[in-house]
Every structure is written in C-alpha cells, then in structure tokens.
C-alpha cells in the first residue's frame, strides 16, 4: 500500500466527519464579539506538554499526541514530535478543528481506532460545520529509528470541548453580499490572545466553501495570502498580503479594506488598519493610510441609516418614539380608518407594512406623509404574521396558512411567493429576516416541541433571490421547554428565543444563527415571571424588551423600571 493510499484509507474511517471542504484559523464598524477579545483576555493556565520519550510503546505515543495538542498558548510543535518525519512535515492542523466531549481508549495494533464522542467540526476559518455523536478516528503508526511514530492522521487539531471553550471565542468574518451593497457577518471561532488578529485575517482569506455560493462574496483576489502575523503597533493593524498589487483596482482595494476594518474592529487594541499587497500600500479617502474604524460605514449590515425609534399601534393607529413617549405619526396609518393588527417598518423608518385585523391583507403606506398612497400588495392570505424588512426595502411576510406556511416577498410593490425548504408547507409560527437580507430564521411547530430553523438566502449580483440553502435547526442550550413563543434578532449573527418554563415563568436564550452549539451570554435577565409572549429587540445596540400583556421588562437592565404600555397599544417593534 502506498503512503497516499494508506493515508486515504485512514481518513475514510472518519469520512462522515471529514466530508466537505473544512477550513480554520454593534452599530458601525467597531463591532464587539460575543466574548471580549484581546491579547490579555486569555486563560491564566499554561501547559507545556511532555514530548515522546525513548522506548515509548505505541499506545503512549497515541495518548501523548492527543495530550500535546492541548498545549497552551496554542501551538503544535510538541505534537509534531509524535509524528514520523514525513507526517510532521505534511500535517496541516490549520485545515480544521475537531472537538470532542470524551476521548476513548485506542485499539491495539499499528492501525488504531480512537473513539470520540460528541464531535464538533470547525473549518479553516473557524466556522462551525456539524456535530457527530460518535466517531472512530483512524491513525496508523510506523517504527522510525526504532521508535513508534504516527504516520497517517487527519489534517486537524483535535482537542476537548473544554479546552476549545477556554482558548477560542466567538467572532465574525465580514464579507459582502452578492450585490456588494451590504456587509454580511459570518460567525467563527478564533484563538484568544496574540493570535486573535492574525487568525481573523487568515480566516478572511481562506477560500469560501460551496455553502457560501450566492450568499456572500469576498473581494480578496485568488492567490492573495496573509503574512505570518498581523502586528499591532500603536493601535494600527498592519496587514501585509502577498500577491500582485497591479491586480487590485481602486474598487477592489476599497472593498478589501472594508472587510478588514469590520473584521479587525473586533480586536479592542485596534483603532486603524493599514493594507499592503506586495510593495504597494493602499489608501482610503484623501489618500490617507491607515484608515480608521469608521471606514466602510455605508455597508453596515444593521443599516447605515436605520432608525432607532420604536413603532406601535395605539388603538389601531401608528405611533412612534420611545417606550413611555410614543407619539402620533402623520402618515395614513396615523389616522383612523384602518383596522390593523401588526406592523413592520423599513430600516429608515419611512415606510410601514401593516397586516389587516383579519390577517388576510398586507397594506403599505409612508410613515409620515399625510397624502401618501396606501397599496395592498397581498390580498386573500389566511393568517399573516408580522412583516419584516431587509436593507433592500424588501418585505418578508409569513402566511401561516392554517398549518401550511407560505413565505411571501414584496419588492417594489410586487408580491412573490417563494418556496423555502423546511418552511413552505410546514406549521411555521414566526419568521424574521436579517437586515442584510442573507438569513431567514423561523419557528417551526412540532407535535411535541418547537424548533428554531435558519436558512440562507441566495442572490445574484442584481439582488434577485435565486433560492435558499437547506434548513439548519439551531440547537437550544437546554431542552426542558417545548413551546417557543417568539424569536428576535439580538445581533446580526445571534437571535434570542423566548420559550415557556411553566405557566408562571418564561426564559430567554440567545443562540448563534450558524447552529454552533452552546448558548451566548448577553448579560441581563434570562428568566422572567409572568406570561411573557413577545420580544422587542434590535440587532443594533439598543434596549431589548419582553412583553407580558402591558407589562414591559428590560432584558438589558432588569433593574430599570419600565412603564406599562398604555391601554390599547399593540405591535410594539423596532425597524426591520
């Protein structure tokens, strides 16, 4: 058996685990990750693993290799010493990360099987891919200079969940949507500490997989590779890339800088970014280099001109403002005569989509133009949920359809029904869209329990919807509740889920839209008294409210006394 054939045979043992291409490592461009980043924010435990010892049996070599991958700060120099010379040279653990709950005992022999439980796979960018309940990892050993060494193994860093949780944190890589009009954040995990900025840049330059086709695009030219590290000097991140600078025109350079600024802006030590390709340094407006973190603000995924007002219906009439200070609007819906039950407002706060009290019709009107026209793009639906808007001024509305859901998009006044896998024809109770227009998140009702499902939206360069990715069920941290009452955006990459604990208590859990396991700590209240049925939240910085009838609770500052909603006030919402 040749080395290539033997290596392939070993990897076949984990074909299900390693299938696909696997790769590793809020308004405005200064974006906070879900966990604070920075060189100083690292665990205080350092581990220098023991290298192989003379005469170690094969079992000790395997055990020592797995132990050496837990070196901290993160490094693989000792782990490579457990490999044959050729394997040590060719092993590329940067290709993926495999995390496990438990590591079983390896089988005997020169070709060993190592059982792993609850394995999570992360690609070269640090993006979560999937979870497998149990995996048999294959390793082949040879004798080299009279000592046992591992000669065939997967290209992966293989570590316990607990180690990964300590040394990696959530962040986002920023790409453009296919129209290049808005940034789209992609959740990833990156190493804490000094490697943080360098890992973000390496992830940003890693090739995008097939799952990203028609969802996001990168402006870094093929063949562009990062340097060994991204130094940070006096707050300036200096990103030096290899490649042909003459292949980078002004538009491409501007988009590259935008991606870098938004991505590196998650590192608190960085206040500006300098980009060079080959021997050329690229500049921003006015020929300045480096550029500060306000660069690229026009591509804000939260909407660069999004209103921060709240909107609601007061006795059926549209009002706007702040909690406790909602005033009348001057548009058609601010006047009596329209029987409405729910609303959605576009990001600038200038247009309103409203559902009739019967749930059968969708009406559109300006928010503040008294003589504005009222149109009805959807007529004769069964049970319309509250509508939602994306940055392209498109409306996404769910017709629950008495248990057979339909998803309708309204663009330029025209309504089109879209077939969404996992949602169309199912019993769907809620549907929301990300402001960047790249994600749909829905609550699908089951016979015994509800699920939160995420779907990516595929677009062409003109912004036309081409289709959708297969649905992905988002795992909730606990399964002690079955009914989900509401779901709302907490950030561009996370949603908060409101569910029942019992008749007297509810809970709010925040999860990542990519399906990565584990809840996200946001601070504030998570367990609530009363029959809470509604979340009022925004993916941009702002208050988050839970509504139980007229009673309002701040989830950001639970100690804050929030006045009850006035009698007759309903459908409280932020824009989007």
UniProtKB/TrEMBL annotation:
InterPro entries: GerMN (IPR019606), LpqB_C (IPR018910), LpqB_N (IPR059026)
Domain named GerMN: residues: 197-286
TM region(s), chain numbering: none
Keywords: Signal
Signal peptide range in chain numbering: 1-24
Keyword flag Transport: no
Official protein name in the record: GerMN domain-containing protein
Organism: Nocardioides eburneiflavus
